[in-house]
């Protein structure tokens, strides 16, 4: 059975100051096949009023999306001859300490990396005849199963159906310690397959939405037999480690190999959430083309890079880290609090949105954990922890247009009041006397002040009295 394992690490007093890179799925590659009797060799489909989708069987088959105003510039395209939908079933391991997280991929039970296209269909309106054709489609999907909420749909929409599958395999390799390895397969008959549905629909004049949903696979999961001997051995090893720890005292930490500190089970809180044995996919990958010189910007508030080409960008809200790789501060933070130092990707305000130097832009909808894999020069692969993915592709001719179209949907912050931009917002901490001293110094040099921002653990009456006639921004936590 696939499981979610959560381990809390905040009880440890000393930690590895150089934590390893979390394991994860590598970039999955597969072959695209299509039914030449049912799928045309080349055709342009109109989507809504403003978009076109080109299907071509050249070079193994690919899909490109265009805006009617720029019919020669593709805003999104798959890689010719390669699968753009793939999936996996994997264990998930999460470690947490005081708001710092690491998400790992554990055992991978199944990877479906190859894809077939069996049908490309334009739907001009609700077609009741399609209901019987796709009886195995997931509940509530696709659009022809939905009986409500059709008034806002901008027809025509495009539905692509087919299967994903895998060959029998000998090896499974993973992303570990920053090194990517391909998943290898034997050239034998398909061992596992599942249906998929991809839907493209115009959302407004500058956005086209996409949805990917997977059906049930024919793969069966069997729970592993419990290992009493292995459990007894682990318990004996923990007891032996505790005895050594008490005998050696502090020298235990110095002599411990690889800088790791052994911790008893009482110092960790572990929770396992096991899913059903139906073997539903819990990883969906969407792969599409990119250019080698294409620069990627965005992903919310990021502190380490401007251009993310060549990086893996996880979208997860957590503490941003103390040091984030700069030494020795990261070493010290990691030593006293598990992974508190952070790395280039940790941030408390990420967003699954980007735009590129080629004026391409995409964002995801929903709350599933996702990773944008930009490590390959010719492609983007989005790995979503879930059984479906939904998002939008944006059209725009400049960065400002793309941001305008993006915020048109997700919302925009209100305009700042005049008082907050009429002077400095001064951040201070250290107590009442420190604030008074800083305030006096600023007034001596006639520095215009709009507000004081004070990060304090609790309100101090004397401090508030001192600043009661100023606009005061307070952040208590």
UniProtKB/TrEMBL annotation:
It comes from the Eukaryota. InterPro entries: Gal_mutarotase_sf_dom, Sulfoquinovosidase_GH31. This is Uncharacterized protein. It comes from Juglans regia (English walnut). GO terms for molecular function: carbohydrate binding; catalytic activity. GO terms for biological process: carbohydrate metabolic process.
